[in-house]
Predict the structure.
Amino acid sequence: MKNSLKQLYGIGAIIILFMVSGCQREAENVTKYTGLVVINVLDKKLYDDCHIKGSISVPFEQVIEFVRKHVDKDAEIVLYCSNYMCTTSGHAAKKIAALGYNVVVYEGGTAEWYQQGLPVEGPAKEPYLKRVIPQPEGMDTDVIHQITSQELAHKLRIA
């Protein structure tokens, strides 16, 4: 009886070791984005319709956790949404900056990028893409640095 109990404990210990080492391997395999990371914070439907070529989709509700888990602290993060009237990218950028990340906002968003004929992916059928919305005066530029389409194109090596 004692030997079978020892064997049972031994098997249990081996199983726990495999589980723990599997968890460690899983944690080690988490992709860490480095360099320039361009993130579209719109919902997946809008991202699929049209987004800046080379950007990734991380909906606003998930972006803080995504950055914490998947983006290297030394990465340069650019957040964008639909256009100047959309405030989600700026709101998320403030929270990400507070965590110590290097983050900027492209406030012109998908619409301005599309209107300027810069590279996009997707069928581009959403009506907001054709609606020209100029940059409002007095935007909150003190907290988060904003970049222009030309600056972002340069970072993406388009221009």
